[in-house]
Amino acid sequence: MNAISVTVWALESHCFLVYSVLAAIFIAFTVFHKNRLHVLENRIGDTKKVPNVYSARKDREGPDDEDDPDYLISAIPEDTLHVPYKPLQMSTKEVIQRSREYYDLMAKRRTVRSFSTEPIPPEVLENIIKTAGTAPSGAHTEPWTFVVVQDPNVKEAIRNIVEEEEDLNYARRMSRQWVADLKPFATNSSKPYLCDAPALILVFRQTHSMREDGKKRMHYYNEISVAIAAGILLTAIQYCGLVALTSTPLNCNARLRDLLSRPSNERLELLLPIGRPHPDTTVPDLERKPLDQIMIKVTSGLNDIHSGGFCVFCVDSFFSGGVDYSCDAVAGGGADYNCACVDDAKHT
To answer: What stretches pass through the bilayer (predicted)?
Structure first.
């Protein structure tokens, strides 16, 4: 009888004993490793009591250099003097009148693609750029660069780059729906206005800048800061009687940046041909969205009237110290409104 036969005979003859031994080994193994896991969990728990600076910073904006005392220098001096702010004081009537006048002026703003070649006085260009530079920015880092181009040769070089890229954009890069959406505006890859307009303003966004000590200075919210500055620039152009085309040259950033010798931390956001409109300029007959489609008025945080809550008109009058009123909605009424301060038509 060989060893294998003896083993099989022993297992068959002592099944209960064998299974009992195996069960005991399994239980001992489980208890042992359970204790090991418990000890390990306790150790992990102890380490969690120590602040994890890396996990705490994972949602932070900017690099994790807070351990470097030389890095923690504010973008502007910490001891910057705070001075009294005394804006122009106007009566409510004047405020309303100026708001209407400004709207009437801005409502006439249109994007044009045909420019007169009549030159723009240099002072006008400087003033509208200075106006754009008054925009707010994150931590006052002012992350914008406005490049003004008037030289015919440079304008032609810009046009060549843009048209080369636009040929590819219209042929391959842009979706068919995108191209279809542009058809009412009669746009294509030809951009003669880049040479016709007396001036081009290229708006670059600075992702960061460098400090005097060679360290990087972060530009917080640089996208929205530059967008605000560009909006102010467009209103300044409109205010002084000029027109512009708000173009965003797709895939032209690197080539135009190199052409204009801009650093790698700058990215082209807008290319604005500006000037006076050509005498034969036409624009699409468009309508802008009415106010009720672009503004939602939230009154004192109360429930909207359509949810069966308060009457926004009466409550607004109440919180502003207005005239006496009687409205079922304020008292928790339903759809039947009886209001002395507004008519029922406004409750729909």
So the answer is: 16-33, 220-245
Contact 234, 203 (CB under 8 A): no
What span, in angstroms and rounded, lies between the C-alpha atoms of 338 and 323? 15
Enumerate residue ranges in the chain where pLDDT < 50. 46-58, 305-310, 312-313, 315-348
- Cα dihedral across residues 300, 304, 310, 314: positive or negative: positive
Q: How far apart are CA 87 and CA 146, in angstroms?
A: 27
Q: What are all long-range contacts of 323-329, with beta carbons under 8 Å and residues at least 24 apart?
A: 329/305
The structure's pTM equals 0.69
Residue (of 101, 170, 127) closest to 274 by Cα position:
127
SS3 167: helix
CA distances from 317 to 171, 283, 331, 340 (A): 57, 43, 15, 11
